[in-house]
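Action item from last meeting closed. Structure (169 res):
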C-alpha cells in the first residue's frame, strides 16, 4: 500500500514538473502563446489619476491590429478592486511595493484550459504616463511575450521599444 502511494505521489510530482517545463518552453518560443476566449473588460483600479484617455489610447493601439477589449470600467467599486484577480478582466493597479525588480510595470496573467482567464497590470506610481507603457503592458495582457527587436512594442526595455507591431518570422 505504501509503495503504491509513493508511486502515485512520485508520478504526480514528475507529471507536474514535466508539464511546467513544457508550458515554460512553449511560452519561451511563442510570441503569443495564450489568447482570451472573449474580449476582456478593463478595470481601472489604479485610481482617478489614471485618466481613461490613457487607457483608451492603449486600447486603440491594439484595436488597429484586430485585438479587442470589451470596454473600460473607469470607476469600479473598492470591493471589486480589492480582489487579487477576476476572471474575464484586465485589472490596472498601482504597485505598492517594489517587487518588480526595478521595472516600471508588471503584468501577471492566469491561464486555464488554454485561454487567458485574467490579467493584472501593476504600474509603479506615475509610470503609466510614460509613452507606450500602457500599450506594452496591454500587449502582455493580450498574451504577448517580449520580442528582442528594437522598435517593437513588445521589446523588453523602455529604451528599445517603439510603436511598431508585427509578428516576427
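Sequence:
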Amino acid at each position: 500500500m505504501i509503495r503504491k502511494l509513493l508511486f502515485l505521489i512520485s508520478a504526480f510530482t514528475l507529471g507536474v514538473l514535466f508539464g511546467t517545463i513544457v508550458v515554460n518552453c512553449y511560452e519561451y518560443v511563442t510570441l503569443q502563446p495564450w489568447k482570451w476566449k472573449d474580449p476582456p473588460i478593463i478595470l481601472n483600479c489604479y485610481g482617478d489619476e489614471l485618466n481613461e484617455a490613457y487607457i483608451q489610447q492603449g486600447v486603440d493601439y491594439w484595436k488597429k491590429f484586430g485585438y479587442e477589449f470589451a470596454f473600460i470600467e473607469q470607476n469600479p467599486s473598492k470591493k471589486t478592486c480589492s480582489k487579487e484577480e477576476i476572471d474575464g478582466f484586465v485589472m490596472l493597479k498601482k504597485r505598492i511595493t517594489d517587487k518588480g525588480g526595478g521595472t516600471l510595470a508588471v503584468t501577471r496573467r492566469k491561464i486555464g484550459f488554454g485561454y487567458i482567464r485574467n490579467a493584472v497590470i501593476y504600474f509603479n506610481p506615475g509610470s503609466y504616463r510614460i509613452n507606450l507603457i500602457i500599450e506594452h503592458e496591454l500587449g502582455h495582457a493580450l498574451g504577448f511575450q517580449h520580442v528582442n527587436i528594437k522598435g517593437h512594442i513588445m521589446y523588453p526595455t523602455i529604451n528599445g521599444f517603439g510603436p511598431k507591431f508585427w509578428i516576427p518570422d
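Note appended to the action item: The beta strands are 35-36, 41-44, 72-73, 89-94, 105-112, 115-123.
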